[in-house]
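Chapter summary example.
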Amino acid sequence: MDKLTEIMNWKAQEIADRIRPVADSELAAFVADAPARGSFLNALKSPAGLAVIAEIKRRSPSAGQIKDLGPSIEQADTYLAAGADCLSILTDTKYFGGELPDLSSVTQKFRSQNHGIPCLRKDFMIHPIQVLEAAQAGASAILIIVRALTDNQMTALRRAADLAGLDSLYEIHSEPELERAVAQNAKIIGVNNRDLAKFTTDLAYSERLIPQFPADVLPISESGIWTQEDAARVRACGAKAILVGEALMKSPDTAQLLADFHTA
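The structure predicted for these 264 residues follows.
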């Protein structure tokens, strides 16, 4: 069994007790709240340079413990001050050490301070109930991992996100996965440079896949980006944004590294 399959099997068990039918009206109730949450897609389109999605990530199966982090809002404040365009907040507990309150605490504090930085709920999404939870926690977007889901599951997640006024980030790692995301009319597609089966990383995946994206899709390069040179490399192949966790979490000068990414 590869790692992604292991994680998805566990996620199905983890949410089993929470699964129930989700009414369209429950999701649509959050549409009016969308301006306060901010648009994930628009925030990534705005910068003149490379947009940066800064990730709050305590640990991972590949890296182990990344940072002994207290309340997530502390890291979020650091990212906000450093000029991040969006945040990605891990809410998976077993493998990544996050939880849903990490997301809600950040969105609630930022909203109280009139900061509308959009936040991605980074988790292994299977069922619309998780989309409802994301909306309740103040997220602006959800993650759809193409390799982990059937077309019907992706359609259900995307429909729920659309109803709630959330953007959907489709994550891919191969040409067949790109084809499936495009068939879903994805507006944001991220190339995960990490093979989620083996947890090895290579920026060549972005270099190969992003040039094949349709012109109306916003391309993101995810994972394996540590330096300004790495960021420049994926920007050269067409990436408009990067998603970075471990490098920013470990950096002794987050503001300088984020500035380096922006100007890559």
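To summarize the output: The longest helix spans residues 151-164.
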